[in-house]
């Protein structure tokens, strides 16, 4: 097996990965991005509404502390306040950098970046009414962001391993990460990509659910690789169901629609969010809106033949606003819902959208493990940023527009930290050949396996188990059934069949490897969801309907060894502002 | 029953490409072409090879030749393309085939990189964003939305003949995206790089690009603007 060496290797070519890579290559470090798709095909491209940040365009008096307050409240108080403070305060600088790189933001009459209202946003720590803090490039902000980052990586000559798939982590005898085993999809060649710093920016894993806004490629590869290498994951029970996925297709309709004045109606045409969130209404937190929608449906006020969805009304905004501010939504709605939003409301339903949990990191992107005594330890050589990481700025519920900010700010922060670490000199002991071989075990097993079940069948079974047992509302006994089903599925997924053993562009092999990653994500989710005996943020239990700060004002940590769940403290000590104390969360 | 005919070529076993036939029951649903491919890969033959990611027409992975016309499989409904129950899926024309429906896009990307697709501005950046009026920003509409799916360039006869020297509609659309951006100060440098008989002037206004663009963009119009800029500069 060939070895290729770099100063920094980034696994994942989405927003976080390319922002980290850009930081390193700008500084002249030998930097590689391994991406299983050409980078502009990464899922960041699908982000629509915008990137939330207090750049004081819409409101000259806007304050990042207000954004911080909203984010802490949105997280249902298990977001780490030091990380949220960092993200909200550094954010404006990171946004202006993107604009200087060429990102084609929409503009105000003054020529500044256009900002729109999004859910959970307020002025003056919740006392000053709705804020408009989400910076937008029409409703194609993710596309504009991702292409801009790719373009600037081209400019700075980042090395791209496009259509290469990272299989597993390589560690050394000290437990430090020294790189990854990766396959070139086009040729089938397997190599050891060695690096002083390995950054996971592998994105989310929405494909564990049957109904998701996520791309086919969102299979939790970083989580899978991490868990197999003994890296723990944090807050995996926290999955965001976006209120407005297009009914039937699952494709996303941005919260920006409601930001621009759209609202949800039930079969009676009632704007039902007025009952659930009298102040913020349709712009309450996403968890709140999603639950309200499900309750409307369960109580018989859903729309359509089966009464199983609600509708998003936009026609009152007028064709001009829709075509200028939400052109992509008009297109998606016509294609996937066969509805012209200029004339009719769009059928929508809560749909799996975002993984708040992930690999625990500090604000420098350094991956963290937790010992039996509950002490944090940095894992040498391993970093994570973006959706795969849990730094944690989203806690139990992410606010709209905060994912793009998270990936830009922490992609950048990881890059900055690695840059200074490289300058100081990073010394990792060489991995032994046996360590490298061990990382190739899974792939070898798959290639040599004869028999086993079909990837697509197993994936369907996994997805329906997650959808049915770990959805918007959860119940202990039902989750235990789900966990049992997963336990039975594990062996079958590990010995999945691979009929096609060819080397050239073998997507069947990649899908089998992805399925195994999905499984690791699903099982971690299931085990911690069953363990967290309370309702908080996106985690809503029918059998524990209240938030329990006494026992659960903490992160959950899942360790693959023994499927163990432990608790980890939340950071309540920001350095420049007072702590935001937990309060009853209402909108 | 839908008769699906898929272009197959595996370099390890096939000496030449061939079409493989599948019978497919849509159960009366108006599926997208990608749904059909996914169902065939899942249920009939896991070796059928194609690219796909977002399945909503924004990532640009699944540009294919569908019943003779380039388009994105994920947003092409059967009702739009199928006549007489026949669906023929081939790789994008004009680029080397790696396997089945997957083409080697290197030449396409090389042309994109050639136009230096990044903002150049020689004045120091301000502490906030560079200001741009909504009118100036609107000059980028219809340009920046390109998803690099290659449907346009691979439908262009000029690109087929000179894929190494003619930038092609996708690359030129992006070239104009930066020429049109009031924040970019490298107009002259950009035009100089395009000022040869091949880069721009191989466009003969055939407009296949406009006809197939899944995002409704108009590369021919952008190329017309570049042409005018080049001619004005020469006089």
Features:
heterodimer; A: alpha/beta; 22 strands; 19% strand; globular; B: 235 residues; 5-stranded mixed β-sheet; two-stranded antiparallel ribbon; 7 strands
Explain this structure to me?
The complex is a heterodimer of chains A (587) and B (235). Helices cover 35% and strands 19% of the residues of chain A. With 587 residues, chain A is α/β, with parallel strands linked by helices. In chain A, the strands form six sheets. In chain A, strands 1, 2, 6, 7, 8, 9, 16 and 17 form an eight-stranded mixed β-sheet that branches. Chain A has a four-stranded antiparallel β-sheet with strand order 11-14-13-12. Chain A has a three-stranded antiparallel β-sheet with strand order 3-5-4. Chain B is an alpha+beta fold and 235 residues long. Chain B is built from nine helices and seven strands. In chain B, a hairpin with a 2-residue loop joins strand 3 and strand 4. In chain B, helix 3 packs parallel to helix 6 and helix 6 crosses helix 9. The radius of gyration of chain B is 20 Å and the shape is elongated. Chains A and B meet through helix 3, helix 4, helix 10, helix 14 and helix 16 of A and helix 1 and helix 4 of B.
